[in-house]
Structure formats: structure tokens, C-alpha cells
Amino acid sequence: MHKPYFLNHGIDKKSRYSRERLIQRLHTQGIKSQNVLEVMRITPRHLFVDSALSDHAYTNHALPIGQGQTLSQPYIVARMTEALLSQGTIDSVLEVGTGCGYQTAILAQLVGKVYSVERIKSLSEKAHKRLNYLGIDNAQLHYSDGQWGWAKDAPYQGIMVTAAPVKIPHALLEQLAIGGCLIIPVGPPNQQVLMKIIRNRIHYEQYQLDDVSFVPLRQGLN
Q1: Catalytic residue among 15, 54, 72, 92
Q2: Each residue's pLDDT tens digit, 134-180
Q3: Active site residue 72
Q4: Which of 41, 47, 90, 96 has the fewest CB atoms within 10 Å of its CB?
Q5: What's the rounded Cα separation, in Å, for the pair 197 and 18?
Q6: Coil, strand or helix: which one is 193?
Q7: Which long-range contacts (CB under 8 A, 24 or more apart) does 11-20 make?
Q8: For residues 217 and 146, is the Cβ–Cβ distance under 8 A?
Q9: Which CATH class is domain 13-212?
């Protein structure tokens, strides 16, 4: 696990208490990985949302980040991260949907390298600034249509998708390494399921994890 230096970055005593309480709640809800819980504890979620929402940063709620997009609730971030890492040590991860960069920051502290794509340019640029500010240097961000993944650096041992397609994009399956793990919400609004896909040498193993609610995975650039 990478060791960051931003544990109490710009956070007051009240918010530190809220952060610790959130981590306790995640543990109670079933998050077992101590590495995931520790990274969630030390990562300053309040820096990834508008200052007007910073008081809500350590509640277990999704928060708006602009452009019709949201920052997932902490439980979902932890759940997806834990599921991705359940296959063991991961050197390279593709994240589809950088958003505000919070999930990127979580992953960057737990894997060797993160490649993240975002179709909304303003979000990608802001996320890049946040990650640079926090000294996270093993995340490579790209302004690109996420349905096509990022073939240049494929295959990936892990792929995480933070928006829901109706069907799993074929390009993402192709860019998953043998033995790799894809975590992705799939389905139309109000009928989405979080899926875990493992690629072996013959086929793809599919597991349903949870009923979820994500913004749709949209096509094209904005």
C-alpha cells in the first residue's frame, strides 16, 4: 500500500470525528479489508467536492460533482475497491469514469498504477489538479470515451467502471488480462446490478454482487 501524507489535510476536529465514524460504519456494513478501510480513512474526501458540500463529505451519501455526475457514496467506493482487490495484488488498473478523482485516489494507494479515462473534459482537468495537489503520481488520466477503455496500456489486471452501461462494453472485456477482475454496474436505471467478472483462459466468470444505482455510462466526449 502506498503511503500518502495527507491524513489531516485541511480538516478540522469535527470532520476528523466524522471521518472516523464513517469508517466504523463501513466496517459494520461488511467492509473487511483493513487496507481499504485505512485508505478510506486517510483520503480527504472533502477536497474532491465543492466547498459548499464539504460538511457532508464524511457522510455515507453520494454527492453531486457537476455535469450531472456524482461522487459515489463511501460504502460503494469501498465495496467496489474491496471486490476488485479480492483477486490479490494488482499492478495495473483501468478506471472508467474519473469523475472528481476520489476513486482514482483510493485505487492509486492500493495498486501499482491507475489509468483513468473520463469523457467530460472539465471533470478530468479538475481531477488531475486534485491528484497533483495531493502528490499522487501513479495515476495517469486521459480525456477519452470510456466505452472504448484505454487500449494503449492494456491488458489490465483490474478494471473498475463507475457508471452503468446497459450491456458490458466488449472493449473492456478484451482489455482485461487473463486472471483479471472487472467490477462494473450493469443495467438500465432502477434495474442495475454490480457485477464481478473474472477472465480465465476459456471464458468469463460472472458474479452478481449487489443491487446498485449509478449514473448511465454515456458515449462520446463532452
Answers
A1: 72
A2: 999 999 999 999 999 999 999 999 999 999 999 999 999 999 999 99
A3: yes
A4: 41
A5: 34
A6: strand
A7: 11/44, 11/46, 15/46, 15/54, 15/55, 15/57, 15/58, 18/58, 18/59, 19/45, 19/58
A8: yes
A9: alpha beta
- Digitized pLDDT (tens) for each residue of the chain, 222 residues in all: 665 555 555 555 557 889 999 999 999 999 999 999 999 999 999 999 999 998 899 999 999 999 999 999 999 999 999 999 998 889 999 999 999 999 999 999 999 999 999 999 999 999 999 999 999 999 999 999 999 999 999 999 999 999 999 999 999 999 999 999 999 999 999 999 999 999 999 999 999 999 999 999 999 999
Maximum CA pair distance of the chain? 53
Q: Which of 86, 83, 53 has its CA nearest to residue 70?
A: 53
Enter the C-alpha cell of residue 164. 452503468
125: three-class secondary structure by DSSP: helix
Please state, in angstroms and rounded to a whole number, the distance separating the CA atoms of residues 16 and 7. 9
Q: What percent of the chain has pLDDT over 90?
A: 88
Of 191, 135, 110, 197, nearest in space to 161 by CA: 197
If one counts every other C-beta atom within 10 angstroms of the C-beta of residue 144, the result is 18
Encode pLDDT of 156-165 as tens digits: 999 999 999 9
